[in-house]
Design goal:
Distance between the termini: 48 Å
Largest sheet: none
Order of helices and strands: HHHHHH
Helix content: over 70%
Structural class: mainly alpha
Number of helices: 6
Strand content: under 5%
Number of strands: 0
Radius of gyration: 17 Å
């Protein structure tokens, strides 16, 4: 029950990122169909702003979680300590969703399936290890790490299949 309460709080990020990805996908597909180096830099800058915003939302969710947990019973207030890991995991999931569009556009959907399966298996293995060492927090940490690694793997694949100027916006 404790873990479930923390998951419910962190799912707010999931709702935001799911809605954003649904709206963003057609727009990005259109931009990818008309390659333009200046436009690509702006698209990448938009990704970075979105990623920063998601991380900020996750931190705000964590900082506000003690107040959110005032409405639950005393037995469930310890779930507040899980929120940062779960919220960051949801943020990385949202970042992953934007990168998956590039892989979809490149018709390499098999890689998305493999990435999902591998990250799921990795999550189960990490949970087994982390729960043994860190208890319930370990489950949340395993989720965050698995989603972060899935995000970075998707970033690698997205750039491999549909190269974008990911470094250039950082230099300007």
């Amino acid at each position: 029950g404790i873990y479930f309460i923390a998951v419910q709080i962190s799912l707010a990020i999931n709702f935001i990122t799911g809605a954003f990805a649904s709206a963003y996908s057609p727009w990005l597909m259109e931009k990818l169909s008309k390659p333009d180096s200046l436009q690509n830099i702006k698209v990448v800058q938009g990704h970075y702003l979105y990623y920063i915003a998601l991380l900020i939302i996750a931190v705000i969710m964590h900082l506000s979680s003690p107040w959110l947990f005032l409405v639950v019973g005393e037995d469930f207030r310890s779930a507040s300590s899980l929120v940062i890991y779960l919220a960051l995991g949801q943020a990385f999931t949202g970042m992953y969703l934007t990168l998956s569009i590039y892989i979809l556009y490149s018709n390499k959907t098999t890689y998305l399936s493999l990435l999902t399966i591998v990250s799921g298996i990795f999550n189960v293995i990490l949970m087994y290890v982390f729960i043994d060492h860190n208890g319930l927090i370990g489950a949340a940490q395993a989720f965050m790490i698995s989603m972060m690694l899935r995000f970075f793997a998707a970033w690698y694949l997205a750039n491999k299949f549909q190269p974008m100027p990911w470094i250039k916006p950082l230099k300007s």
